[in-house]
Task: structure prediction
Amino acid sequence: MRNYDLEFLKHFSMVLGFLVLVTLGLIAGAFYLHGLIPPEVSPAAARQTEARIAPTGAVYAGATGAAAQAAAQAAALAAASSQAAYGGTTDGAVIYQNLCGACHTNGVGKAPTSFGTPTHDAASGRRFRFSHRDLPMPLRDFRLPFLLLPVLAWAGLAWANPVIGGEPVLAIGAVQGTGPASPLVGRRVVVEGRVTGSFVDGLGGFFLQDAGDGDPATADGLFVVPADPANPRLRSGQGLRVHGRVVEEAGQGGPGGGHGTLTTLQAERIEAVRAPAPRVTVLRAPPPDWEALEGMQVRIAAPLSLNGSDPRFGETSASFEGRLWTPSERAVPGSPEFTRLEADNARRRM
Result:
């Protein structure tokens, strides 16, 4: 598994755990807030309560007592009607319809037209209404915290996955490609890996290698040229994330010396990160294609022959399977044998 895949899985699992904790907290909060709302009594239950506590009969002291009671009630009603509005009635429905109904029915002055489901307190005879609007503003809509979940999920994934939060981290093998030149020349990319060799003082850059993309046809190393060679203090084994532009550098006498080009990242920003250690490729014979090892750390486990040095570039030429012969010493220039010797020298030369 590639290093940026491991980093993504680690961050993604942390995001999932965070969202699970947030969800459990919201569920617990919703249960607590729901418990603050008084339970509504159904009309059928209210009627049953009224029927249960209603008096079963009336007591009168004969016809005279009944007449006296009726006269007293009539007098009290007449006295009350002279001192109170609406005929002295205490019926809430009558008072509401005469005093409040016009505004609340038509919504005059933004008067509320709905008050929730009415409930009845049979024990005290009071009628009251309660709805979620009676709660403080932050508690009125339980849906608000759940509407924030997609936002939290997006923010978490943006942090966990660089594809969402910014540029994707590519495997160095994807930058190198399988050909002699990178398929991403001229494009800005982001790579991660460990420093395998710092040559800022001599070559103006350093080699960076990741854990590999699993494709033996692509190189897992890359030469990086920092924007300010004097600024970064690099050491072998240091994990870095590099943002930069892909170029193909030089040829003879360039950073890599020799023929061909060297895939290079012109760094624009360098960040320290944790990166898995790259593997060291062990060579016991010349590889089928040197391009697949460009910029990578290798260890030679085979005898080499020294063929000379070039002090202009500080290079020493070595070869597998014996010394290198100048093709014209063994074959006529332009002949098939001459071409074969040239190709064999290129295959064995380091």
